[in-house]
Amino acid sequence: MEKYNSLVVVGSQWGDEGKGKMTDYFAQRADVVVRFAGGDNAGHVINFNGQKHKVTIIPSGIFNKKVTNIIANGCVVNLINLVKEFEVIKKSGVDYGNLLISDRVQLILPYHIKIDEAQEEARGANKIGTTKRGIGPAYQDKVSRLGIRLGELEDDNFKERFQSVFDYQMKFLQTMFGVEPLNFEDTYNDLINAYNAIKDKVIDTDIFIENAIKDGKKVLFEGAQGALLDIDHGTYPYVTSSNTSANNASTGSGISHKLIDSTMGVVKAYSTRVGAGAFPTELTNEIGDGIRERGHEYGSNTKRPRRVGWLDAVALKHAIRTSGIDSMFITLLDVLSGIDEINICVRYELDGKEINSVPSTNQKYEKCKPVYMSNPGWKEDITQVKSFDQLPDAAKKYLKMMEKICEVPISGFSVGPDREQTILLENIF
Ligand code: GDP
Ligand code: IMO
Ligand code: MG
């Protein structure tokens, strides 16, 4: 494989694949890290030097001092939560001076959170299981042109403009959901206070990113969520509200797709899902419980237990195709130690027919039965492994089988949460 200067890192399943860990790892050799989609619905855990850090909207490159970290236009940002996140990482000794925020990001405002909660309630049994961070309503407002762009806070008529949007939102909340209105002056003042804490970081980041690439700098694009939660290509309606797939790295950061060299998909060695939606390979038995406990599969943001299942190669190949994934980085391989037989779903059976693709509706997806290929497991603890050769034979075969089924090379694998527990097979960046 070639060595690339601009690389997209995306989740290839339903999120929580270890994108944060991998972005932090590759950020050690990057100049710029760009977060291009989502908001503080994401939760990335990063471990190094015996310390554990968590970020939601701040890019995972923040722990590398020489990296410029950018929150780009494709994101939705809750400024109040962003400032809180700054404070937390500052306390753990991290300098966040190297952060820039696009003046084109859309804001998540307090009423978006209220609408998210009210809409979930109204969905009743069909709840999506959102993170209740206001993500859907903020993207909804962006598309219906009722959103607020960060740059607008510098306009001299901003207060009037905000008041008119705010009045509309209050009417909507009250008439649709009977929710008590928020106070305008308080909402406005909280917003301005948070803005004042970060305003020196707000620039037109598109130009910065384009110049960085043209100057030969090394730029990483960090995805949030996973390809199967993509609003267009994911398992709709049980998805998030943005394009999480790699193609959005260009639109979500305001540069031409021609400036992006390659895409790496982060792939968990098994599957997890948080929230509702069909999940053909789900394990609701002691094997699944064991994986959940060994992998600490509890949401870093909402603390919800993650649903666990076997690796689903049909869903993974859908992600590979819709995101143009050139190489895979396999994470949490250590969690599979101790399982006798490890399955990979290679096809589905739907209404008596075998299919090789993800159906477009949840009802059909619910009916898909996985067809498995069985692989021998291994007993050994692999958390101290430093090379492919040191892996037990069965683990080597499992990785080789993934490559064969997906027809995409594996560029490395990870055997524990720490930055050091990472084995690079190809120096792609
Ligand atoms: P992200 O949202 O894709 O960044 O992933 P999360 O951080 O939400 O979830 C991944 C979890 O797995 C985190 O707690 C990581 O510390 C942890 N993790 C990442 N890679 C590995 C690995 O190879 N082995 C183990 N055991 N844990 C890992
Ligand atoms: P990271 O970046 C896993 C899921 C939610 C819910 C659906 C919609 O850590 O991988 P939303 O609040 O976005 O409207 O919720 O998407 N979801 C995630 N699941 N990891 C994430 O982020 C997620 N972000 C959203 O659980 O099912
Ligand atoms: Mg996560």
TrEMBL record:
Q: Which PROSITE patterns match?
A: ADENYLOSUCCIN_SYN_1, ADENYLOSUCCIN_SYN_2
List keywords of the entry alphabetically: Cytoplasm, GTP-binding, Ligase, Magnesium, Metal-binding, Nucleotide-binding, Purine biosynthesis
Which CDD domains does the entry mention? AdSS
A Gene Ontology BP annotation from the UniProt entry:
IMP metabolic process
Q: Which residues bind IMP?
A: D16, E17, G18, K19, N41, A42, G43, H44, T131, R145, Q225, T240, R304
EC numbers: 6.3.4.4
- Its EC top class is ligase
Reactions the enzyme catalyzes: IMP + L-aspartate + GTP = N(6)-(1,2-dicarboxyethyl)-AMP + GDP + phosphate + 2 H(+)
Query: SUPFAM superfamilies, from UniProt?
Result: P-loop containing nucleoside triphosphate hydrolases
Q: Where does Mg(2+) bind?
A: D16, G43
User: Which positions are annotated as binding GTP?
Assistant: 15-21, 43-45, 306, 332-334, 414-416
Q: Any idea what this protein is called?
A: Adenylosuccinate synthetase
| Species this protein is from | Spiroplasma monobiae MQ-1
